[in-house]
Fold:
Amino acid sequence: MQFTDASTDPRLTDLIGRLVAVNHRLTRLAATATGSAESPATWRTLSVLRDLGAMRLGELARVSRVSQPTMTKLVHALDERGWVRRIADAGDARAWLISADPRGLAALDAWREELSAAMAPHFADLDDAERSVLETAVAILGARMERADVAAREGAVA
Structure:
């Protein structure tokens, strides 16, 4: 089957819209399934720092789609836990870069394992073909997100 340019293919734009919507539902279910009291913003912030690397607070707020005061509070709480580090910005002595600390990344990995274990029962009845489709979909989405991360990193540098 031949697809047209994404900007003109209503089937593709509809598919992407449905994908994003079902992902939001999946994320809500996952948050409920773990019973974690931790703020989703904590995990999102650590994920951004893991995926995009160290960045200034304002850029971290922009990428995370929160206000700078909100990110300031979040980074302060993460810093108190030892989950992030403040690094002097070599390009501007007045500024700091925020990076994920190995302890924060370990906490993120542990949460993801907990999340996976909590969600597995919802997918346990998938047959081999369905699992294969999900593996392919995850690989495709992962590759697209890598491209988006590269673009975000390049935009942060510019």
